[in-house]
Specification:
It is built from 5 helices and 6 strands; from the N terminus they run E-H-E-H-E-H-E-E-H-H-E. It is an alpha/beta fold. The longest helix is centred in the first third of the chain and has 12 residues, at 17-28.
């Protein structure tokens, strides 16, 4: 059961209902031995059809999409065998913040992809402030997909 503040999983490709349902099921499945769940809101609304990241970033900035980040099920996600979900979010740009000039630090857009079975960890950790989206993005593989944290 989702609530109004949960990050959205936005469907932007409407060509394959079965693939959409498969990715949603992968995201909804409990992960790890601790049985983490993703607390997300699934949005399958034609107004988002073929929406580019720029449109979604604008909706995030306008607080039209709650939580400051979301997950996008686009054509690549539905057609790639790994189903890499697009993760979009606004993050604080601490490097360009001059607290003497700016009351609030500026925000920048961040995009990377993650396997559906990692959405639970991203949503759980970012929502409670345990980790930032940047920490997941920095651990993405060379192809831009977060699969897991490096093992030491």
């Amino acid at each position: 059961m989702s609530n109004e503040h949960d990050p959205w999983v936005i469907r932007t490709d409407f060509l394959d209902d079965a693939a959409w349902e498969e990715v949603c099921a992968l995201i909804a499945a409990p992960q790890t031995e601790d049985r983490f769940l993703a607390y997300v809101r699934y949005v399958s609304d034609k107004r988002w059809q073929d929406a580019l990241p720029e449109k979604i970033f604008a909706a995030l900035a306008a607080d039209e999409i709650p939580s400051g980040f979301c997950f996008v099920i686009d054509r690549r996600c539905l057609t790639d065998p790994e189903h890499p979900v697009l993760v979009l979010g606004e993050v604080t740009d601490w490097d360009n913040w001059d607290e003497a000039v700016d009351e609030d630090p500026p925000k920048v857009n961040l995009a990377f992809r993650a396997l559906p079975r990692k959405i639970q960890a991203i949503q759980n950790n970012v929502s409670i402030g345990n980790m930032d989206l940047e920490e997941f993005a920095q651990c993405a593989d060379a192809d831009g997909v977060f699969r897991d944290f490096p093992r030491s």
